[in-house]
Amino acid sequence: MIDGKIFIGGAWTKEGTISEVINPAKPQEVLGTMILSTAADVDRAVAAAGVAASAWKALGFVARGNLLFKVADAVDEHLDELARLAAEEMGKPISEARGEALRAVAILRYYAGEGYRSTGDVIPASNPRALQYTTRDPLGVVAIVTPWNFPLAIPMWKMAPALIYGNTVVLKPAEWASLSAIRMCEIIGPILPSGVLNLVTGLGRDTGEALIQHPGINGISFTGSSEVGGHIADVATRRNVKYQTEMGGKNPVIVADDADLNLAVEATVSGAMRSAGQKCTATSRVIVVRGIHDAFIERLISRVKELKQGDPLDPDTYLGPVVSASQFHKVVNYINVGQREGGQLLWGGDVTKEPLDHGFYVPPTIFDGVAQNHTIAQDEIFGPVVGVITANSLDEAIQAANNVRYGLSASVFTTNLGTALKCVSELNAGLVRVNEETAGVELQAPFGGMKASSSHSREQGRSAIEFYTQVKTVFIRA
Ligand code: NAP
Ligand code: MG
Fold this sequence. Notes:
Elements: E1 6-8, E2 11-13, E3 18-23, E4 26-35, H1 39-59, H2 61-77, H3 79-90, H4 94-114, E5 122-123, E6 130-138, E7 141-145, H5 153-164, E8 168-172, H6 178-188, E9 197-199, H7 204-212, E10 219-223, H8 226-238, E11 242-246, E12 251-255, H9 261-273, E13 283-289, H10 293-305, H11 325-340, E14 344-347, H12 355-358, E15 365-368, H13 375-378, E16 385-391, H14 394-402, E17 406-407, E18 409-413, H15 417-426, E19 431-434, E20 450-451, H16 464-468, E21 469-477
The chain binds NADP nicotinamide-adenine-dinucleotide phosphate and magnesium ion.
């Protein structure tokens, strides 16, 4: 059991209204509690971050880097515990949760190293005796608002760059990832000066809203749904606060008729079904060129039949439950709509058990005969459901792939270099992967979407410096 508490100005408090956190695999089991932070709590957290900001900035890059190396070691020491907690709290298999915890440590080490790298350019000045250069200032207090699907990695890929570049942080994790955030802050908090990292838990519409509206916030980094992201962009734009919103996806795989079928099937299954389809980069459409359709479907179904769905803590589990009862009902509704609109249910879809007793399990579900305008070909489902669309040509496949409002990630399977390069050039997605699944993000490379998937900024790698700092141009006349 983890007791609800929030972290403000270096001190933990347990005061406040609490809400229970349940295990999505065993909904009768309570894993812990979380505090529903009030506007007054948010006020105190933002104030504490504001007080800590100037000393944290003044500490400098190298000293902050050294502290982040210590934070990385501390998280590393708690790897198994954090992985288990994340798996229990949101239902992803322990094998994936462990990978996520390892990634959180790698992210910390990467950004700790940023403390030793250059932060600007020297630029010739019109006066040859003058020195003109750029340097990077932090934004100040950054609000970080995160989703539940990567309870460890997403908060970390925002907090680590925010901190190394000299910002102080108020984190508001998703309701369904609050326990992981509490444990992470318990581990990290004592290493950092008071007020540099603050945690408020609570519901988005209350705690989250109070945070993004707070006048003491100088930047907002958000990952989550397009709906909430759009609202955050409105609020931030009105106050001229820098913001970054990473949102949904409807990620396609294109299977060309010269594809390596085993590779294409394995990557489709992994992209669509791992984490029960709850990744922003999950595969949710497979666009198959007609000639290879039957062979692809046959292998896809035989592979999906083998998947082990069950207890997230079992190391052999391929997919667990979805995160919550509301997510369960949303996904089941899409399965029903898919059938009503004429999609052909080839596998899965049978959700007969009462979810509140048995865990929020949605079986891996495959539709064939999906048309581009079907709801399940357009909306982000965020569950283990994939729809197969047949295209008559590669051009039609690319047109179908681009025919959605989102543009996060896209894959193509082909053994032809020309086909690969044509897809790389014509697919409108922030991440294009050849012969690799749509999911999978390298922490050292830029990550973000096109179209409705993002505010067109990029996270991770060296791109993060663009959001978490502002450029100062300096001219010094000797
Ligand atoms: P969400 O409902 O938009 O919530 C995201 C975060 O925003 C949560 O912490 C939520 O709190 C908070 N929030 C909700 N309303 C708010 C408001 N009015 N003001 C401030 N904060 C508010 O998204 P989700 O359901 O957690 O996550 C799933 C979505 O995230 C999917 O659309 C997925 O594609 C997207 N995602 C995108 C990426 C990416 O990098 N592009 C990565 C992962 C996930 P509560 O939890 O308390 O509601
Ligand atoms: Mg939500």
